[in-house]
Design goal:
Structural class: alpha+beta
Strand content: 5-15%
Number of strands: 10
Bound molecules: flavin-adenine dinucleotide
Distance between the termini: 34 Å
Strand order of the largest sheet: 1-4-5-8
Order of helices and strands: HHHHHHHEEEEEHEEEHEEHHHH
Helix content: 40-55%
Radius of gyration: 21 Å
Number of helices: 13
Shape: globular
Amino acid sequence: MIDNNQEELNAIREGVRALCGDFPAEYWRKVDEEKGFPEAFVKAMTEAGWLSAMIPEEFGGSGLGLAEASVILEEVNACGGNSGTIHGQMYNMFTLLRNGSEEQKRYYLPKLASGELRLQSMGVTEPTTGTDTTKIKTTAVRKGDKYVVNGQKVWISRVQHSDLMILLARTTPLAEVTKKVDGMSIFLVDLREAIGNGLTVQPIANLVNHETNELFFDNLEIPASSLIGEEGKGFRYILDGLNAERTLIAAECIGDGRWFIEKSSQYARDRVVFGRPIGQNQGVQFPIAEAHIEIEAADLMRWRACAEYDSGRNAGAAANMAKYLAAKASWEAANACLQTHGGFGFANEYDVERKFRETRLYQVAPISTNLILSYVAEHLLELPRSF
Ligand SMILES: Cc1cc2nc3c(=O)[nH]c(=O)nc-3n(C[C@H](O)[C@H](O)[C@H](O)COP(=O)(O)OP(=O)(O)OC[C@H]3O[C@@H](n4cnc5c(N)ncnc54)[C@H](O)[C@@H]3O)c2cc1C
C-alpha cells in the first residue's frame, strides 16, 4: 500500500521546507493580523512549480500523483503556513483536466502551470441550500452563443486572488429532470471580465484569515464556450474531483497536527512549573501522545486514499475517511497544544491560536463531518439514506 518512492517524497518535503523557511512564523502572523493575503508566498510556490504538481507534463506541469501533491500541502502546514491559500490552484484544475475539451485544456492548462492564470476558486455553495447541492438556485440559461447567469453563491474562496472560477449552475430546472443530480453544468468563468459586469463580490469577515465571499449574479453573460464538458453533467464532474480534494485536505490536517504536536512537545519540555517541566506530568503528556497516535493513524488512511486514487481505483471511501480522521485528529492536536501552552496559547506571538482557528475549518469545509458519516453509513454500511 505505501509503496511511493520515499526518496522522491523526501526530496519534495525538503524542497517545500526550504521554500517555507523564507516565510517564517512572523510572516504568517503579520498576514493574519493584517487580514492580508500571502501574495509573496503564493508567488514563490507558483514560481517553484509546486502548484502545478498534478498538471500533466504535456501541459507544462510536473505530472506528479496525488501522493506527491499531498506531501507539498502537508509540509506547508507542518512548517506553520496555511495551504488554504494555495490548494485551490492545485485541485480546481481537475475538473478542466478531466472534462474540458482539448481546446480548453491546451489554452488554459499551460497558463495555469506557469502561474500566468490562477484558477483558485470554485463556486458551489449557496446561502439557501447549503449542503443540499442539487437544490441550487443559480441558473445559467443559454441565449445564442452565451449563457446568462442569475443567482447567488456564498463562502466562495480566493475570488479576489483568482483570474478564473469553476461555477456550478442549473441549466435545466430541477422539476424537469428525472434524477436530481442531472441538469447542472459547470462553467469556467473569467473573473476579470465578470466582476463589475453582472457579478458582484462581497467579502465575508470570518474566524480565519481566509479570503471568502458572497457572490451575486445579475444577468451575467458568459460565452457558451465556457461550458466544461456536456451540459447537464456538471454535478457528476464536480464529484469526480472531490476525492482528490478531500485527500489533499487530509494531508494539510496531518501537517497541522504535526506542527501542533511538535510545538506542544517543545513547550512541555521547556516550561517549568512546580519545579519541573510541565511535560513530566502525565496530565500534560497524555493528550499530546494521544494526538500523535491519532495523527499517525489518519496518515495511514491518507496514504491508502493516495494509493487508490493514483492507481485509478475508486478512492471515494478512503478519501472521505482520511479527511474525517485527519480533520478530527488535527483539531484534537490543536486543543492539546492550546491547553499545553496555558495562557500563552492565547497570545498571537505563539501562533497556536492562529493555527487553532485555521485547522478548525476542516471539520466544516469543504465537506462537514456529518456528511462524511452519512456517506459511510449509506455507501459502505448500506444503511438507509437519511436525506
Ligand atoms: C471559510 C470557508 C470557505 C469555504 N470555501 C468554499 C468555496 O470555495 N466554495 C464553495 O462552494 N463552498 C465553500 N465553503 C462552503 C462549505 O463547503 C460549506 O460551508 C459546507 O459544505 C457546509 O455547508 P453549509 O455551510 O451550507 O452548512 P449546512 O448545509 O447549512 O449545514 C449546517 C450543519 O448541519 C449539518 N447537516 C446538514 N444536513 C445534515 C444532515 N442531513 N445530516 C446531518 N447533519 C446535517 C452539517 O453537517 C453542518 O454541520 C466554504 C466554507 C467556509 C466556512
